Predict the structure.
Amino acid sequence: MEVFRKVPIFKDLKDDELYQVLALAEKKTFKPEEKIFAEGDKGDGFYIILKGEVRISMLLEGIGEELLMLLKENDYFGEMSLIDDQPRSANAISDKETTCMFIEKNKFANFLHSDIYIENKIINGFLKELSRRMRNTDNKMKNILLLMKSF
């Protein structure tokens, strides 16, 4: 439960609410270099890293793997599958021995819809984290554009 308390999307939840989320989760372990999901796969839920590291990356034709993010303990990934019904937008690969908690999309949606107050707290957490990640992406794009202009 302490790990869930450190996850940004759950930071506003009370203990009893965190226990309800924890009850939805299933522990999964991945070996180094094991693919957790691939770009184009159906999004079936999201993951919270308990231990280890996960690379979020894309394969670029003629170039190879391009790292988008390296996620560590208490980070989560795959959450876009909760928002839309689109396929996975990137690969998730364990960088080393990694243990995650997996929360299935439909179970999580049913849980959220059962309590509007919990739903609002979690959605607010998602929005804050999405905003943080978008700002990081904006900064990366700015640096790429500056680099391209220098050629």
In short: The longest strand covers residues 64-71. The chain has one domain: 2-149. The chain has a mean pLDDT of 91.
